Amino acid sequence: AGAAVAGLAPAAFAQGAAKVFVLEDPALADYSGQAYAVAVAGFAAEAAPAAVFFPASAMGRDLAPRVAARLGAGLASDCVKVAVKDGALEFTRPIYAGKAFLTVALRTRPALATLRPNIFPLGEPRTGEGEVVRMGVTVPEGTVKGRVTEVIKEESGEIDVTEADVVVSGGRGLKGPDAFALVRDLAAAFPRAAVGASRSAVDSGWIGHQHQVGQTGKTVAPNLYIAAGISGAIQHLAGMSSSKVIVAVNKDPEAPILKIADYGIVGDLFEVLPRLTAELKKAFAE
User: Fold this and answer.
1) DSSP helix/strand/coil, 262
2) Of 264, 261, 28, 281, whose CA–CA distance to 135 is shortest?
3) Section 101-113 average pLDDT
4) Which terminus in the chain has less CB density within 10 A, N or C?
């Protein structure tokens, strides 16, 4: 959906889509929860899909409940697994900061869900074309209650934490913004890594909010998550507990994050991180 998005169809076909529905309207040029809810709910009512999935991103979390309310349909949020059982879709989502999992069966149609990023891997690229279906979209005048006056894009050149294969995050244990150089050096030792941070580090002004991982930041599920100087508050765990492998570096042996980590290093991060970085560089050079 958008003002001019038909050109994105080939990318969907390359990942195995047989049919791509295109919803285009000038009112969809910039994201508006009101306008997009009208467009997506109208599509779902007309096309009658079995399910509609949204990313568990800031936009997806805003849009999905709006669409669900318009359709009177069930919504499962922040899901990490999808299955079919007895003819109904079942969704699994983490609860209690990833300490337990809840399975929800949606009996309504369509079933709506937000899916955590990076949980479901892309398939092998395929060749061939599919069918493009242009849906009629009418966003009534007055639907959008606000308008976008300016879009400021970040120009850091860094990989976003939600897209990285490896995330190296720093917390209050870094004791200041300068120590994030150790985190950046370790991240740079990997082919495709990003720098993350706890809320306390962001609130202290040590690093930008775009790096924040957690309940009030971004949800990540990389192949490897390294937490340095992060105690493991429940709000932070909620944003990274689905990572494939978790490594925690903390001088406190009782730090909560060590209880969920696959590998824990109890030690001074100012000594551990440089040694990890050096060993990684050596390993990748061989």
Assistant:
1) coil
2) 28
3) 91
4) C
The backbone torsions φ and ψ at residue 114, rounded to the nearest 5 degrees and listed phi first, read: -105, 135
Could you tell me the pLDDT band of residue 117, with boundaries at 50, 70 and 90?
A: confident
Which tokens in the block code for residue 157?
A: 């050149």
The H or E element containing residue 15 is none
The strand order across the sheet containing 245-250 reads 193-197, 166-170, 224-228, 245-250, 263-266
Distance from C-alpha of 72 to C-alpha of 65, rounded to nearest angstrom: 10
> Predicted confidence band at 1 (pLDDT cuts at 50, 70, 90)?
confident
DSSP helix/strand/coil, 202:
helix
Please report the domains of the chain, with CATH numbers, ordered by start residue. 6-135 (3.40.50.620), 166-285 (3.40.50.1220)
User: Three-state DSSP class for 232?
Assistant: coil
Task: Tell me if 94 sits within 8 A of 242, measured CB to CB.
Answer: yes
- pLDDT at 265 exceeding the cut of 80: yes
The reported pLDDT for the residue numbered 120 is 78
Average pLDDT of 157-178?
92
Structure-block tokens of residue 59: 């936009």
Helix (H) or strand (E) holding 91: strand 88-95
Of 6-10, 112-116, 206-210, give the lowest mean pLDDT range: 6-10
Question: What phi and psi values does residue 22 have, to the nearest 5 degrees?
Answer: -115, 125
